[in-house]
Every structure is written in C-alpha cells, then in structure tokens.
Amino acid sequence: MKATTSDIEKAAEVLRAGGLVALPTETVYGLGANAEDPAAVSRIFQVKGRPPTHPLIVHIGGAEQLDEWVEEVPATARLLAEHFWPGPLTLVLRRGRRVPLEATGGLETVAVRVPDHPLALALLETFGGGVTAPSANRFGSVSPTTAHHVRAELGDAVDFVLDGGPCEVGVESTIVDATGEVPSILRPGGVTREDLEAVLGRPVAVPATSQVRVPGQHPSHYAPRARVVLVEPEKVVAEAEQAQELGHRVGVLLPPSLAGAPVKTHVVETVPASMAAYARGLYGLLRELDQRGCDLIVASLPAEEGLGLAIANRLRRAAGPRPL
Ligand code: TXA
Ligand code: MG
C-alpha cells in the first residue's frame, strides 16, 4: 500500500511525539527520528542494535537549509550540495549546535543529506525539522529497499512505516568528507566518483575497503545470513558447484557474461548487465537467497567504475570477516 497525504501527516505527528518512522528514500529505507530529540535518536540505536558511537545521517528538506545544521560550509561543499541535492550524496561537515551529540556518535562532525524521494521530501516539509535516519535494518545486515523488508525485519519496533514503493537507486548514498579543502569519499554509493570528479574538476580519493576509517564502516556489514564468497568471474561456476557437492545450499550470482550457463546449485540468479539495475536489485537479491535457504553465496565483483564501485564495496563487506 502506497502512502497518502494523511499518512505524511501521521508520520510527522509520530516524529513530533518522539517516535520512529520508517521512510522511503531513493537509496534505501531509513529509520527516522526527530534529529533534535536525543531520546528519540537514542531509540534508533536500541531498535537497530547499533553501537551508540556509530554516527547517523541527518536528512533535511533542501540545500538552502544546510547552514542551519552545520558550523561552516566550505565552497566545495556548497558546490556539491547545489549540484547533487536532492540526491544520493551525504556531506560530512562540522557539526552545528542544533545537532545533538547522540546523532553524531559523539563526533564534532555531522553527516547531512537531502533525499530524492517525493514522500521523504513531503515528510521533511510537513515535519519542518531534520530527521536522523540510518538504514532501517538491524546492525550489520542488508539494507531494506521495500517497505515489506522493513516490516519483516523490524516489525513493531517501528511506530509508522511510510510505504513509498521500491527504492530507485538501491544502494546507500555516497558519503563525502567535505570538512577540508580536498573532499574524499568515505563510502561509495549512488553518486559515482566520476560524477563528483566531473563537478569538482579534479580527482577524488576513495580509501580501500579494508581500512576502517570511521565508526560504522566495519568489514562485515551489509551482510546476508548466508556466507558470501567472492571469486573471479571465470571461477564462479566451478566454485559454486564444488561447494554444493560438499553439502552447502549454494546461491550463485552469475555474471551477465555467463547468462544461461547450466549451473548445478540450489539457486542460480544472473545479475543484470546494467549497473543501475544491479544496484537497484542487489539487496533484494541477497535477502531472497537467504529466504530460499542458501547458506553460501558465490559471486564475483563487477568492474569498479560508476555504480560498480558501490556494488563491489557492498559485496566485499558482505564477504568480510564476521564477529563470532
Ligand atoms: O543512503 C543512505 O545514506 C541511507 C538513507 C536512509 O539515507 N542511510 C544510511 O545510513 O546508509 P547508515 O546509518 O546506514 O550509514 C551512515 C554512515 C555511518 O555508518 C557512518 O559510516 C557515516 O554514515 N557517517 C555518519 N556520520 C559521520 C561522520 N560525522 N563522519 C564520518 N562518517 C559518518
Ligand atoms: Mg546501514
């Protein structure tokens, strides 16, 4: 069921009363609270099972509101905000006094973005303030891209779910540290490195996935229940069939170049050749393989350019070492 105008009003009311609202964005669904209500923000951490030191993103209704939430807007940050908002870009800047430390995990910087989804923007306008929202999933698991995913994972822990249909982008926003002169990518996402470089007119650094740069960027994140194994594209079929023979229930994410190849495993899914379609479907696919009982997922990485960079980052993290 899609949300109506009265749903937007109800959701804004829930936020004002200190409750939690799951809201659609163009990237993934967020678990939102009034950014200026420390008790409500703290509830987000409880519901997600997320350590309180992991900073959240403050969602605002427009680029013109940025100065209300941060201490200072360097020229580069202004340029990026004006160019990419509303859109899947998050800017890390110096925290304004309006932002409680609960929302930033105690950091003196804050992550801010303007989501590009009509319902999210309508909610932000009706509510009138900022909404802190991490992805609406339990800590470490796969982000939700439909309202159904949110309800299945968080159930009654959320006071209201605003259904905006499936998310268009499917992977989270690109996070850019814009505190200094030279911006760098902290997390690749919906806005590509190439897009950023075209606007800035210079190269933008992307740290290696293995480097844990900021809280909330642990190696094992965005992970399905099934273990994920990454191999070269030409080894996917052999690796998957061997694991299946050893007794695993294997789900294969088959590269598009191998579409139609016969593979003897529990589930076979050919991934789309278009990176936009792959990103849109990635989390739903991982959830589906879990649901169909796979205990092992064999996949390969796409070329790390355009949206392929974000997809490869999520697959690497899903395959990363897990806490015991
Ligand atoms: O697309 C998205 O960004 C989604 C939608 C709901 O907007 N949100 C999202 O939130 O992915 P979350 O909480 O799952 O990831 C936000 C990440 C944190 O894990 C952290 O790595 C980074 O943003 N972050 C937040 N504040 C930061 C800060 N002050 N400095 C550095 N990184 C920060
Ligand atoms: Mg998340």
UniProtKB/TrEMBL annotation:
Catalytic activity: L-threonine + hydrogencarbonate + ATP = L-threonylcarbamoyladenylate + diphosphate + H2O
Classification via PANTHER family: SUA5, THREONYLCARBAMOYL-AMP SYNTHASE
Organism of origin: Streptomyces achromogenes
Enzyme class (EC, first level): transferase
Transferase among keywords: yes
Stated family: Belongs to the SUA5 family.
Keywords carried by this UniProt record: ATP-binding, Cytoplasm, Nucleotide-binding, Nucleotidyltransferase, Transferase, tRNA processing
Coiled coil: none
The protein, known as: Threonylcarbamoyl-AMP synthase
Gene3D superfamilies cross-referenced by the UniProt entry: DHBP synthase, Threonylcarbamoyl-AMP synthase, C-terminal domain
Function noted in UniProt: Required for the formation of a threonylcarbamoyl group on adenosine at position 37 (t(6)A37) in tRNAs that read codons beginning with adenine.
Cellular compartments annotated: Cytoplasm
Molecular function per GO: L-threonylcarbamoyladenylate synthase
Keyword Isomerase: no
Stored InterPro entries: DHBP_synth_RibB-like_a/b_dom, Sua5-like_dom, Sua5/YwlC_C, Sua5_C, T(6)A37_SUA5, TC-AMP_synthase_SUA5
